[in-house]
């Protein structure tokens, strides 16, 4: 390992489980745990988040500047990159854009100390999958690992995964796409998301909010995200928070009374 690279490794905060051995491709062979790189100031928030992530069973490396982050990303295969947009010697948004271009499969979350819609748009537009205001919790970060990402499109299985959490994640990140859901019984539907709002939903002959709640009631099957296309008409105007709350209420009610949807 090059001397300068080893200095970067020594400066970064490694969990006890990490080793410094190298793989044949020249990048460090770390633990097989999901590996997270946190690029943020060395303050109490960072120390607390690192502790939370490790308690959740995730491996995390912390550095306080973008220069070291560039070297660390070259040395090891990270699964998640957490970047404070305010960094010493490096602009956080620039780091996000560089990492997205270099590592398309990397999950990236931008962290911010203040509310700013302009900064949020810039971070998401240049490659971040998620924008979070500090302080951040381990649950918010681990949610990035529950979705398989290929060419920045999502897909996965509903079994063992809460479709409501998936929808909430996509709304939170301001996505514009179509969430396609299909159950193991063949029930299917599409939810149209635009700029972090639900515009339309359809399932069979059902449209609007009833179709959305039907899709959200499915517990086994598959979901995928499709490129955006304009629906014939917008059928949903409620705020995302209200829709999620009502979907959760209806689903809980259905579970308690064994009700079933019929087309």
Helix content: 25-40%
Our measurement of the CA-to-CA distance between the termini, rounded to an integer number of angstroms, reads 62 Å
- Report the uncertain regions: 1-31, 147-155, 257-263
The main sheet comes to: 7 strands, antiparallel
Overall shape: it is: elongated
What is the helix/strand order?
HEHEHEHEHEHEEHEEEEHEH
Give a count of the beta strands, DSSP E runs of length 2 or more: 12
The side-by-side strand order for the widest beta sheet comes to 6-7-12-8-9-10-11
Counted by DSSP, the helix tally is 9
- Radius of gyration, in Å, reads 20 Å
Tell me, rounded to a whole number, the average pLDDT.
77
Q: Specify the structural class.
A: alpha/beta
- Beta percentage is 15-25%
């Amino acid at each position: 390992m090059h001397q300068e690279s080893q200095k970067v490794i020594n400066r970064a905060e490694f969990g006890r489980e990490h080793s410094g051995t190298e793989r044949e491709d020249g990048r460090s062979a770390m633990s097989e745990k999901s590996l997270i790189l946190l690029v943020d100031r060395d303050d109490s928030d960072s120390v607390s988040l690192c502790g939370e992530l490790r308690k959740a069973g995730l491996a995390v490396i912390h550095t306080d500047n973008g220069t070291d982050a560039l070297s660390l990303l070259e040395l090891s295969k990270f699964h998640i990159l957490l970047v404070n947009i305010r960094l010493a010697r490096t602009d956080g948004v620039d780091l996000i854009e560089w990492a997205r271009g270099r590592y398309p499969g990397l999950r990236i979350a931008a962290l911010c100390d203040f509310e700013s819609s302009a900064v949020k748009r810039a971070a998401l537009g240049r490659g971040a999958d998620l924008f979070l205001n500090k302080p951040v919790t381990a649950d918010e970060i681990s949610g990035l690992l529950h979705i398989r990402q290929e060419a920045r499109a999502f897909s996965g299985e509903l079994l063992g995964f809460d479709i409501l959490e998936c929808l909430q994640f996509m709304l939170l990140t301001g996505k514009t796409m179509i969430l396609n859901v299909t159950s193991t019984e063949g029930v299917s539907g599409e939810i149209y998301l635009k700029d972090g709002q639900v515009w339309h939903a359809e399932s069979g002959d059902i449209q609007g909010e009833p179709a959305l709640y039907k899709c959200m009631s499915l517990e086994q099957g598959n979901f995928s995200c499709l490129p955006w296309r304009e629906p014939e008409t917008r059928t949903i105007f409620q705020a995302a928070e209200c829709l999620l709350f009502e979907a959760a209420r209806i689903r809980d009610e259905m579970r308690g009374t064994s009700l079933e949807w019929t087309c």
